[in-house]
């Protein structure tokens, strides 16, 4: 476990509750060149960073705890809202990561863990770390229970987030179409060879 993860209780949520309409199939269950599902890979990256308390917004697998959205059909913000409600007492931070980042590396989470404020990546927002859970609960509830657009952008705007640049932006690439998934798998195969 990393020094950062050992010093506070950290929960992570993998966002895997979307319809995957553009992909045409469940992105969390896509099989990577190494044989793991994308969901398992994401959980493994979190584990390498020392994060053991992992929730899945959507269908969990491999012993991961699945949580349901209180506000269904409201996108990733609804997943964050539900994860905040499921954090164990004493949790100091919540890391949020979508299931569709096949080039992710453990170092991305280690950078977030070093930050003292809620922090997101300026290129893609995700993954992000929420440090003020009570404020985040209030902000997500206010947005989701109103007529506001339930976007991550509006959430970040209503919270106090620091933004950092990725040292390797390709690690933050999300895959939403069969073409982008194929490109990512080709990159992964090239790394292995």
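^ structure tokens above, recovered residues below v
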């Amino acid at each position: 476990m990393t020094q950062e993860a050992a010093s506070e209780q950290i929960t992570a949520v993998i966002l895997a509750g979307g319809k995957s309409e553009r992909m045409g199939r469940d992105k969390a269950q896509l099989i990577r060149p190494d044989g793991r599902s994308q969901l398992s890979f994401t959980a493994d990256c979190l584990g390498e960073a020392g994060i053991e308390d992992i929730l899945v917004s959507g269908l969990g697998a491999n012993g991961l705890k699945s949580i349901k959205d209180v506000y269904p059909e409201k996108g990733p913000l609804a997943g964050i809202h539900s994860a905040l409600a499921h954090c164990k007492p004493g949790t100091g931070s919540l890391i949020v990561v979508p299931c569709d980042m096949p080039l992710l590396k453990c170092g991305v989470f280690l950078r977030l863990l070093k930050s003292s404020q809620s922090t997101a990546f300026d290129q893609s927002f995700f993954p992000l770390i929420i440090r003020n859970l009570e404020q985040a609960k209030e902000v997500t509830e206010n947005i989701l229970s109103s007529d506001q657009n339930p976007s991550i952008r509006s959430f970040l705007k209503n919270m106090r987030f620091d933004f950092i640049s990725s040292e390797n932006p390709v690690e933050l690439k999300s895959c939403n179409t069969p073409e982008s998934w194929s490109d990512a798998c080709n990159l992964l195969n090239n790394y292995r060879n």
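The beta strands are 9-16, 53-58, 65-67, 91-98, 118-121, 125-130, 161-164.
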